[in-house]
Inverse folding.
């Protein structure tokens, strides 16, 4: 479990470093930093201490074919649906929203349990 947690932190830190790289999400630097995956897909028992998760959500338009019809879609980190975040009560989540689209954007948090 500790190895998974350590790797998740490394991925989140790499995601933050990726923001300064003009190549962006999905390009070779993204893959080399291992930020081309969901960061918060970790399930496990609460170990009695709160955890802090860090990530960056890049809002941008990209072409995708979710229903076999290609079109421009507003996405988080070029993912549809956006990355899943699984945390426990008391955990801290730091996710700055970087709007790379020409439109205004806001995050609507769905599925909070």
């Amino acid at each position: 479990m500790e190895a998974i947690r350590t790797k998740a932190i490394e991925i989140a830190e790499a995601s933050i470093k990726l923001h300064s790289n003009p190549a962006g999400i999905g390009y070779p630097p993204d893959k080399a930093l291992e930020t081309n995956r969901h960061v918060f897909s970790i399930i496990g028992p609460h170990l009695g201490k709160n955890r802090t998760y860090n990530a960056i959500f890049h809002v941008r338009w990209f072409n995708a074919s979710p229903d076999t019809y290609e079109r421009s879609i507003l996405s988080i980190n070029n993912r549809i649906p956006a990355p899943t975040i699984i945390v426990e009560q008391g955990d801290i989540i730091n996710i700055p929203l970087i709007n790379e689209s020409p439109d205004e954007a806001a995050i609507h948090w769905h599925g909070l349990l």
